[in-house]
Structures are given as C-alpha cells and as structure tokens.
Write a structure and sequence with these properties.
The complex is a heterodimer.
Chain A lengths: L5 H20 L3 H17 L6 H17 L18 H33 L14 H16 L9 H9 L12 H8 L9 H34 L6 H32 L17 H7 L2 H12 L9 H19 L3 H23 L5 H20 L3 H11 L12 H4 L7 H17 L2 H6 L5 H21 L11
Chain B lengths: L7 H26 L19 H11 L8 E4 L9 H8 L4 E3 L7 H14 L4 E4 L32 H4 L2 H11 L29 H13 L1
Parallel strand pairs in B: 1-2, 1-3
Classes of the chains: A mainly alpha, B mainly alpha.
C-alpha cells in the first residue's frame, strides 16, 4: 500500500489508529499489538500477497537466530562447548541468510544477465519479482542480529514484539531504518498507548506536507526528469541541466516527502521515528551530505559496515579502502545494475578525496564548497537514474557541452505544458524547494509547531491540493485503439 | 471560541474536517450524478454512455441487465462491436440483447463479462465472437496495455474510491448536468463503428456489395 493513496489516508490509517487506541483504552495491550502487526502485514500484502511469505520467513528465521544469540548462548555460558554453534557462527549464519535472501530476490536476474553477456550463454532469466521493502527490512534485521551479538539488546524478547519491530507499517516499505533501541522502548511507555492530540496535530502537519512534497512537487518534476532520461541523445546543454536538476529535486522531495509521511503516521501512534533528512542540499562537503541525506542509512553504513571493516583504526590506506567499500556496497544496495554500483563508487571516491583534502588542513570558501558538493551530487544522481552507463555519460556530456546550448528546448512546451501544470504552480514549487533546502526542513517546522489557524490552514491546504492531484491520477481516459 | 484558539485537539479536528469534507464533496457529487450508472440508472438527466467499455460495461451490468430483462448477450472484442443488439435478437429469434464487447479484450476479460452477466441477469443465449487473436493474447490475464477497473465489478462499494474520487468523473458529471456531454445516447449504437452508415446495414452483404468488393480486390 502506498502512503499517497486515498485508501491509506482515508480508510487504512484512521481504522488502524482508531481501533489500536480503542483496544488500549480497554487495557487489551497484547491484542492492540496483535492488531498493529496484523494491520502492518495487511499493509505489506495489499499490493501483492505473494510477498507475504518472504517477510514472514525472514521474520521467523531472524527471530530464532536472535533467540540463539541471546544472553543464554553467550560465549561463556553453559551452551558453549556442547556442540552448540558459537554466537559468532550464529551471527555469520544470520548475515549470510539475510544477504542471501536479498541477493536472491534483488540480484539473481542481474547476475544471470551478466553471466550471459560475459560468456555468451543463454541461461533464461529467473525473472524474480522483488518483494517490497526487502532492502529495508533486511538491513534492519541484520542490525538487530549484530546488536544482539554485541549485547546492545538484552533479555528475552517475545515473537509479537519482534514482529512489531520489523513490520511496523509506517516504516516498513522505505524506512527510516530504525534500530531496536530507537523504537521498541516507546511501545512500553503506558502514556503512549493513549491518543495524544499534540502528536496527532504534528502528525497531520507532517502527513499533509509530506503528501504535498510527494504528489505535487516530486511528481511534477518527475515529468520533466522522465522526459530527459528516456531519450538522452536528444538533449542539449540546457535541457540536460533541466533534466538532471529536475531529477535531483524529484528524488529529494519524493523520498523526504515519503519519510515525512512515515514519521507523521508513526506520530499518530505516539511513536517518534528518527529523522531521515536534514536539508541535504545545504551540505558543504560530501561527508556533510551523508550526514543529512537518508541519515538512518548513513548510520547503518557507519555502524554495521564501515566500523566492522576496521573504520579508521587500521591505518590510512585501510581508511580509504573502507570508505570506498562502504559506499560501493551502499550503491549495490540501492538497486540492481552497474549504474548503482558506479554511483556508489563515485560517492566512495568523493569521500576519500574529502578525507584527503581535510587532512591537508586547507579551507575552501563556503559558497565554492557548497557549489562543488551540489554539482557532484547532481552529476552522481544522473548516473543513479540513467538506464545505462552510456546513457548517463551522454547526459553528463551534454551538461558540459556549452556549444549545444539552445533555448528552444526550454520553451514552455517542455517546461510547462509537459506536466500540464500552470506557470503559477512552478513558482510555488520553487518556493517549496527553497523553503526546505535553504530555510527550515519540514521536521524543524513540525517540532516548533503550535496550534494556530495559519498552521492548520497550511496543513489542510496541503491535503486539499494533494487530493486534487491524486484525484487527477484516477484517469478514465478514452481507449487508445492499439490492439484488437 | 477563544479558548480553542491554541488547542491541539481543536486544530487537529479542523484539519481533518476540512480535508475530509473536501473529499466527501467530490465523492458525494460523483456518487449522486454517477455518469457511468454504476449504482443506478440515470434518472434526472437523459442517460448517456461512455465509449470505454472496460468502465461502462460495469454500469450496463449493474443497472440495465436485470431491470431491462435482457436475455441475450453479445461478447467479444472490437470487431463484435458491429453487431447491433436489436438485429442480433431478431436474427437469433432470442430475447432482448445487450452488448458487452470490449475493444482489445482478452478471453479473461470476456469471461468476466459473461460470468458477471450470468450472475446478475437471466441470460439464456450468448453470442460470443471469437477473434483470430484469441490464441495470441494472454488468455488468463487482462490486456496489459489497458487499465482494467476491477473494483467496478466487485460486489463491495468500499473499493470504488478511484471512481468516486476521480477528477475525470467529476468533469463527466458536470458535463452531464450541463447537457454538454458528448457521450452516446443510444445504447443500441454504442461502440458501433459506423453509426452514420447504419441505414446501409441491411445492404452490406448484398450481391452488389460483394461484386464491388471483388472488383476492388482484382484491381489490387
């Protein structure tokens, strides 16, 4: 189920929240948790029920491994030395299982396609459908097992709570990636079991603004971005810049809008999810960017890949290698295709260069630092979004080929009519872009929110405008005479 | 009023009310006018019919099939569009005929039309036009190039929100009320390819037409 659907906003969310608090008011706390898990699994299976067994198997296996890793099986307890696998072996098995699951569903087709192209073989592609959110719930469960191994999570843990931890619907599909200690203790606080109107108000603000960012801003820029990425060879200097900048804006507002909606939805249930974006396009260097962009992934990469690889403890050469490897893995995690691997490698290289530059102790003027960071991130998004590396090179080539400048492709037909959006809305979009990147982020606004008519109207208007565009997506277009 | 000005509950309810009332206005308007006649026959304006059969057939099945006592069904893809129901019922000497063809339809889509019609009406004769593309299409799936509105064919109305919350449907509703709709008024001629030549229908298979056709073929 998508957050930006009427079913989620008008039926699923009110029913789930209403019944959850009703059960809690009757002191049926376990049943309330069962209801929340059931609703989350319904949310997950809504688009394709075939994905349900995948998440259930993943939950079950990781839960059992988590029990085996619990304090009773610690290296110096009675289980050791009696043929029971050591905690380290269990952890390795767990990571292997999770990475294997992710690898099978996400990379099997990619692997076979590459084998075919290298060896000229004709192995048929398995054509495996990718279960929704598998990258997120897999990473979250790897983090759980590692935290169990290092005793950051202690004590017995019931299956219901574990299910709630993994499949809590607001963050199930696209994060934020939460660690156990960030979320689960909040379910144990009694006052969180009752409706809190302050949180409902902030949640509505985040949900409304997030919906607006996703439906109005991201999907408008998507029209321009898609147009350019479909046919990169037709672009010139200006239109290639319009394409790349549109995608840079689209991606940020799409993902951060989705995250705002996730945080807002959780807030209705009095659960505070961690911040995931902090105006990343304000960054003054690439390290700063990764502290602001998809922050929970950044924390995961640091704690569960970079530090276990040795971090900065094993000498200067290893630091560079670890940085590069961490972001190369992050690139592969983002999607299947060499474009993602190259995107990760580019970010890894940029972080190495930043580290080298920082070591020299040289300073750069702020504006130059911001411009360099933004231009690099923008160029890297081209690689991330392009259908293939040659197509990415084609767009990047046009972006530096000022001789091909032509105003014709920036005519209103491309910039305005392509999306069917009137000119005044474009002005509104740019105001929105500046609001979130230059001034305050949505969550900064939400944290300072006080009840008042103007804020209420902002939130209500965000819902109303987004609803109009959502209604516009329910097309009843004429049949195109295409196929008998 | 003053004490509510800085009250979280008051403002949260205000946001919910504005948003929900806005949605309910559109949904209510579309439900009442119901341009596709999914819930009832058009009563306060002259009924009109949409040419996209994947959508309109749901209205025909729900609101016309049983009330108008149809007994014959015409099923198939676009070429079967040219069977005029009244001619078919005369030719087959059967009961009143209703056309539920779908352009570019797969057997799966045609099967759905037949099964829904058999479920809702008292059909005893089915004229099923089997096209040559029958074996080429994916028989157990909907046409992947066309959107099929499953929700209009379910018993529940709870999943109808894409219909009720559609700007297109809102515009169709407004056009209907303003009598500006360009949709077909005659159920008989709906989706017929050559409505202007319908008077020549009877002479279509005459010897003269056949000889004309042969001459043209010989020229090629």
């Amino acid at each position: 189920m998508l957050f930006n659907s009427f079913f989620y906003l008008l039926i699923f969310l009110p029913v789930t929240i209403g019944f959850y608090f009703w059960l809690n008011s009757k002191r049926l706390i376990i049943i309330a948790n069962i209801w929340l898990v059931g609703a989350s699994l319904f949310f997950y299976a809504f688009m394709k029920i075939a994905f349900l067994p995948v998440i259930l198997v993943s939950i079950l296996v990781n839960y059992v491994l988590g029990i085996l890793l619990s304090e009773k099986t610690a290296p110096c307890t009675s289980y050791s030395g009696k043929g029971w696998p050591s905690p380290k072996t269990i952890l390795k098995l767990g990571i292997l299982f999770n990475v294997g699951l992710l690898g099978y569903f996400k990379y099997a087709d990619f692997f076979v396609a590459n084998v075919n192209s290298i060896f000229g073989s004709m192995i048929p592609l398995p054509e495996i459908l990718l279960p929704l959110g598998i990258s997120f719930f897999t990473f979250q469960q790897i983090a759980y097992l590692v935290d169990r191994y290092y005793k950051r999570i202690r004590g017995k843990y019931d299956f219901l709570s574990y299910c709630l931890f993994v499949c809590f619907f607001p963050r199930l599909i696209a994060g934020p990636i939460v660690r156990h200690g960030e979320m689960m203790p909040q379910f144990l606080i009694l006052r969180n079991r009752f409706l809190n109107w302050r949180n409902v108000y902030s949640g509505l603000f985040l949900l409304g603004v997030g919906l607006f960012k996703k439906v109005v801003i991201a999907e408008t820029f998507a029209v321009w971005a898609n147009k350019g990425f479909v046919d990169p060879d037709s672009l010139n200097f200006l239109s290639s810049w319009a394409t790349s900048l549109s995608y840079t804006v689209q991606l940020y507002f799409d993902f951060s809008g989705y995250t705002d909606m996730a945080i807002g939805s959780a807030l209705f249930l009095n659960i505070k999810l961690p911040q995931n974006f902090n105006a990343p396009y304000r960054s003054l260097n690439i390290q700063d960017f990764w502290r602001r962009w998809h922050m929970t992934l950044g924390h995961f990469l640091r704690d569960y890949i970079y530090i276990p690889l040795g971090g900065s403890r094993k000498g200067p050469v290893r630091v560079y290698l670890n940085l590069f490897l961490t972001f190369f893995i992050a690139g592969i995690w983002h999607g299947t295709g060499w474009t993602f691997a190259l995107w990760g490698a580019l970010h890894g290289l940029a972080l190495c260069m930043h580290r080298f530059w920082s070591g020299l102790g040289l300073r750069m003027p702020k504006f130059l630092a911001w411009a360099l960071t933004f231009l690099f991130v923008n160029a890297a998004w081209v690689v991330f979004r392009a259908e293939s590396i040659p197509k990415a090179i084609s767009i990047l080539g046009h972006m530096i080929d000022a001789r091909s400048m032509s105003w014709a492709t920036l005519s209103p037909s491309l910039m305005v009519k392509a999306s069917g959006i009137p000119v005044y809305l474009i002005g509104l979009l740019f105001i929105s872009v500046f609001q979130d990147t230059v001034f305050r982020t949505t969550q900064e606004w939400a944290s300072k929110l006080r009840p008042g008519i103007w804020w209420s109207l902002v939130a209500a208007s965000a819902f109303v405008v987004s609803f109009v565009l959502l209604m516009n997506q329910n097309r009843f277009s004429e049949f195109i005479y295409f196929q008998f | 009023m003053l004490k509510y000005r800085h009250n979280y509950k008051y403002h949260a309810v205000l946001i919910i009310l504005i948003s929900v009332l806005f949605v309910l206005f559109f949904a209510g308007f579309n439900y009442i006018v119901d341009p596709l006649q999914i819930y009832r026959k058009q009563s306060f304006v002259a009924p009109r019919f949409y040419s996209d059969q994947r959508f309109q057939n749901a209205g025909k099945i729900n609101s016309y099939l049983s009330s108008d006592k149809y007994e014959t069904l015409i099923i198939g893809h676009s070429q079967v569009d040219n069977f005029i129901p009244s001619k078919v019922q005369n030719f087959l000497n059967s009961g009143k005929a209703l056309k539920l063809t779908i352009d570019g339809s797969t057997p799966r889509e045609q099967y759905l039309m037949v099964s829904k019609a058999l479920e809702k009406g008292k059909i005893n004769t089915v004229l099923w036009g089997v096209g040559l593309n029958f074996r080429e299409s994916t028989p157990f799936r909907y046409n992947k190039n066309q959107f099929f509105p499953d929700y209009l064919y379910t018993e529940s109305n709870f999943d109808d929100h894409p219909y009720l919350l559609s700007l297109d449907i809102f515009n169709f509703s407004v056009d209907l009320l303003r009598d500006k709709s360009a949709w077909e008024t005659d159920l008989e001629m709906l989706n017929y390819w050559m409505p202007n030549q319908v008077k020549n229908y009877a002479s279509f298979s005459s010897e003269k037409k056949l000889s004309d056709l042969q001459k043209q073929l010989l020229k090629c």
